[in-house]
Amino acid sequence: MRDLSQDHRWLSINTATVRQWPLDRIIEECGRRQIRAISPWRDQVAAVGSATVARLLRETGIVLSGYCRGGMFPASTSSGRQQAIDDNRRAIDEARELNAPCLVLVVGGLPAGSASKDIGAAREQVRDGIAQVLDYARSVHMPLAIEPLHPMYAADRACVNTLEQALDLCHELDPEKTGALGVAVDVYHVWWDPKLKAQIDRAGRARLLAFHVCDWLVPTRDLLNDRGMMGDGVIDIPKIRAWVEAAGYEGFNEVEIFSSENWGKRDGGDVLDICMERHASAT
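^ thats the sequence. predicted structure below, dont judge the formating
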């Protein structure tokens, strides 16, 4: 298990953590602190411009640990499903332009605006959607990382809710482990799963494409926007990181904290500094 106490070379900042700043400033401030990696969101890239983002990454030497996000495949109409496919192809191109190591997929839940309660059908649409974009992703060498989300998001954000479900999709769609399809393991979403270690072992180096950290607060005041800083909640992050690294993961630990009423209201520089401190002491 890697020793993180002496430096922050394996720290990455998911840029949702400091949305109080535009992306160009996030890159500049990370560069000033010698943070080596970020994972930006598509809307943040669009707001600044991909050419500007690419230039700032070159100037600072910062790389990406992932790109957020593709997915959201289910729709109530065939035209809606096609729009999702087209949008995912654009996301793949954007990720490639910025040299991301993977495009993270938040796959979607029940079709928005419909009365459907058929989560099984939604999961079939997810499978079919990934299958439709996988060949293109493979052709441009952009791995897709399925991120299972906590079951509380099954209806509206992701109907893939366990690492086992995500890996079943990987096995079905990429049985030869070509490197085109894997998983993003976010401790916030999977820490509770009694099968977690076994599924991390099953994933192995070939499927483990990203690792996200934050903490689960008790109580949690908002199901989306009240994540905790590492060390402030109940997740045993070092134990999960040990499992991931023992399975072969050698990438960045990406801090992703949605916290509109706490960290999102603080000075961005203080947030980054505390991320660095807690990365060393609590992950």
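The chain has one domain: 11-281.
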